[in-house]
TrEMBL record:
The lineage of its organism: Bacteria, Pseudomonadati, Pseudomonadota, Alphaproteobacteria, Rhodospirillales. This is 3'(2'),5'-bisphosphate nucleotidase CysQ. Its EC number is 3.1.3.7. The gene is cysQ. It comes from Marivibrio halodurans. Its cofactor is Mg(2+). Mg(2+) 1 binds at E69, D89, L91, D92, D216.
């Protein structure tokens, strides 16, 4: 099973890179954004990347259903039950894409038993691919270089680095959650890069007190937990998937070497 999953991980890494190339082709143009029913932006890059990813996943693993952000927004959500399914965010951080700051990602995860078991997070503008196979390991590949192992770090003696969303969440709730913990630095990043920075030992904690959907978190959680981290609800409850009909998440905390 591990070899089968490694083959799937390699397959979705290739798919993510193809989607990243499609996104970057549009990034280089004078593209426009539209507004979805939930008031979030969408671009041609979101739609082109999702079409490419979904088609490729169906060729790679025809029996595994795909839950993808733009299809879900249009009401096209398969009945996944308790079975395995793919979670896809073709362009996580559309606002980062619009602001051209490079902090947007392609997220692909495989969910089994309501938990992420493998995933990839590609930051195409940064040339960086994070991948994780839970129970085996996590890796980071930069540009055309080989994949190097990554792992969470133990909490530093001089205090924690906490990473948070640039645009979402309640700062007061975050400060209340952090009360009593030694904090050395507060940092920000866009998209699923926050999970990846914790996974790579560049941050220790990512509390999220704002709305997210499962496709926002599945791939990042897979990478983080493969690197030795953990994602829980804010009360320490395990963070599960296929929780409700619209795949909406509760608030959560992503932990590096620290534990609830």
């Amino acid at each position: 099973m591990t070899s089968d999953r490694k083959a799937l991980l390699d397959g979705i890494s290739d798919i993510a890179r193809q989607a990243g190339a499609a996104i970057m082709a549009i990034y280089a143009t004078d593209f426009d954004a539209r507004t979805k029913d939930d008031n979030s932006p969408v671009t041609d890059a979101d739609e082109a990347a999702e079409a490419l990813i979904v088609s490729a996943l169906r060729r790679l693993a025809p029996d595994i259903p795909v839950v993808a952000e733009e299809a879900a927004a249009a009401g096209n959500i398969p009945d996944v039950g308790d079975g395995p399914f793919w979670l896809v965010d073709p362009l996580d951080g559309t606002k980062e894409f619009l602001n051209r700051n490079g902090e947007f990602t392609v997220n692909i995860a495989l969910i089994e038993g309501r938990r992420p078991v493998l995933g990839v997070v590609l930051a195409p503008a940064l040339g960086t691919l994070y991948s994780g196979l839970v129970g085996t390991g996590a890796w980071r590949a930069v540009d055309e270089g080989g994949a190097e192992p990554i792992a969470v770090r133990e909490p530093p003696a001089d205090g924690l680095t906490v990473i948070a969303s640039r645009r979402h969440g309640d700062p007061a709730e975050i400060q209340q959650f952090l009360q009593g913990r030694p904090i050395a630095e507060m940092a920000n990043a866009g998209s699923s890069l926050k999970f990846c920075k914790v996974a790579a030992g560049e941050a220790d904690l990512y509390p999220r007190f704002g709305r997210t959907m499962e496709w926002d978190t599945g791939a990042g959680q897979a990478v983080l937990e493969a690197a030795g981290g953990l994602v829980t609800e804010t009360d320490g409850t395990p963070f599960a998937y296929a929780k409700n009909a619209i795949f909406e998440n509760p608030h959560f905390v992503a932990w590096g070497g620290l534990r609830p």
